[in-house]
Amino acid sequence: MCGIFGCALKEGKAAPLIHSSLKRLEYRGYDSVGIATISDGKIFVKKDSGKIDEVDKIVNLDDMPGSIGIGHTRWATHGAPLKVNSHPHADCTGEIVVVHNGIIENFMELKNELQNLDHTFVSKTDTEVIPHLIEQVLKENPNLTLVDAVIATLKRLEGSYALAIISTKEPDKIICARNESPLVLGINRKGVFCASDIPAFLPVTNKAVMINNGELVILTAQDYEIRKIQDSSLVTREPITIEWTAEMAVKQGYPHFMIKEIHEQPETLRNTLRMQEHYLELMSTFLDRANEVFLVACGTSYHACLAASYMFSKLAFLPTYPVYASEFIEQHGKSVSIDSTILAVSQSGETADTIAAVTCAQQRAATILSLTNVIGSSLTRISRVYIGTQAGPEIGVAATKTFTSQLSVMAQLALRLAKKRGKVSQDEIDSLEANLEKLPEIADTIVKTQEEKVKKIAKKYKDSKVFFFLGRGISTATAFEGRLKLMEIAYIPSIAFPAGESKHGPISLVEDGFPVVFVCPKDDCHKTLVGNIMEMKARGAQIIAIIEEGDMDIKSLADEFIEVPKGIPGVLSPIPYVLPLQLLAYYVALEKGFNPDMPRNLAKCVTVK
Ligand code: F6R
Question: From the CB of 391, is ligand 1 less than 6 Å away?
């Protein structure tokens, strides 16, 4: 995710303000930090891997000259959290430096092009192409202004960015720009600031100017000028006054991190779907060659594995075995061997049970692959290949956005494998890929259109003593995840089963008014599921159904329904269908007066077995 900050002050040193502002952006990433300032026509840079306080202790971030500067707190995506990959990044001459939040999708081709023109790269990051491109534009067009060179560069970038750039060529300004990644300006009588987020500058000003996609800003200590990247036309926008308290600001105005993170899913899915092709290619090659594949994880990450086992089977005809990490050693420890492949999934990359399972498999020469949200975590260090899930730091204890990111990476892997194995028609693959691309938009629609309805349902059922969550096929995993969310933050005992299994025992619990949540995408299981709903209804259950928009078969049976946009293929359905369940858990917890961000007895990262 990363956080950027820049400031142009009328007087005084920029570095201490950049340092303190980056501290307030640390929630966006904290594996490396860096600051660049300009003074007397020279650029000064201090950067290293580690948390801001750790790096500061060694390099004294405040001790940098100049009243103009930019800074960055990193959450690694491209390249490990090492000093060399820390921002700011510079061109060959060191006269143009850049901080960046986002992902430049076409960086490989740009890098090749620039290397052929003799540019020297020192990092593994996508960002480093930006200063080199600006340098190259200026080399080819020496009469261009810095702003025009930046505009020409931006037009060549594909992907997302919030950028702040300084250069000795025009040392009185910062140029920043936005496409998808957030960017906002702050203004007070001492100067002008740019940041990823309002909390960065809230202690010094509550006057903010929001920057939109496709806009560039030229910022000096006196003023700011906004232009459209497309045609350089001027945009007039006055500052607004932010009324948030500092605590509200960190949560961007949301009352809790959990709801903020639920709302972030359109963005995190968009980022995850920008996965670099070669990582997917590499990991799917390992999976393709594997004799047996175990999907190993705990909690929510285990539910992602469960759903993924359906994806791998249905799309790639690859059997995989989802296993609770805490059971792996007992269940498979002796039989795992050089012929086994482990795909370990962990948001934190530090969960003790997952690390123990992976270590055991590694000692028995198994191939270790992993998926994690934290590059540089223990899991990445013991994996042959790992993929970062690009969800940004997740602070709410209950996993939400990392679950959908894990699922979307595994869906991409399954599709990649499907192509390799040639078991699914090209038409079907094309259609699934198109549907994957639509998921961020669909997530946005669900949150925008269904949240109020979910709130009402939460109010109505908040005093229920127990809930059932049922689904068939891949929706079993969605039902399991909905149940875990409700239990862990609203403390309501809940039961989840594959719907078909419920009549082999659990149905005996059902009596009048018993709430049963059914997850009902329009997939191959739909008809049978209707039968399961009727069985429950006949025993007095209250049916809360998550349905496809306009699904009259189920609408006519349900007491409550939450609608998800039409046309999502069953194999991708857990990604959008889990959103209403996350919202349900959140609002039931609120109704019951609990803090969803701090569920009792739980920790975000479980480092004990
Ligand atoms: C539930 C939740 C936990 C985690 C589990 C694994 O909301 O967050 O169940 O999913 O502790 O954590 P990671 O994914 O970090 O290994």
Answer: no
Amino acid found at 273: L
Domains of the chain: 3-250 (3.60.20.10), 277-424 (3.40.50.10490), 447-604 (3.40.50.10490)
- Strands (DSSP E) along 277-403, which ranges? 292-297, 320-324, 340-346, 367-372, 385-388
Hey, what amino acid is at 108? M
Catalytic residue (one of 251, 604, 605, 609): 604
Mean pLDDT, range 489-505, rounded to an integer: 94
- Pair of tokens at residue 413: 């892997």
Size of the chain in residues:
609
Q: What pLDDT, on a 0 to 100 scale, did the predictor assign at position 463? A: 96
The torsion angle over the Cα atoms of residues 461, 466, 472 and 475, rounded to 10 degrees, is 60
Q: Which two tokens stand for residue 422?
A: 């040639």
Write the secondary structure of 273-309 as one string of H (helix), E (strand) and C (coil): CCCCHHHHHHHHHHHHHCCEEEEEECHHHHHHHHHHH
- In this prediction the pTM is 0.80
Q: Is 351 in the pocket of ligand 1 (CB under 6 A)?
A: yes
Give the tens place of pLDDT for each residue, 195-236: 998 889 989 999 999 898 999 999 999 999 999 999 999 999
> 107-116 vs 129-140: helix axis angle to the nearest 10?
50
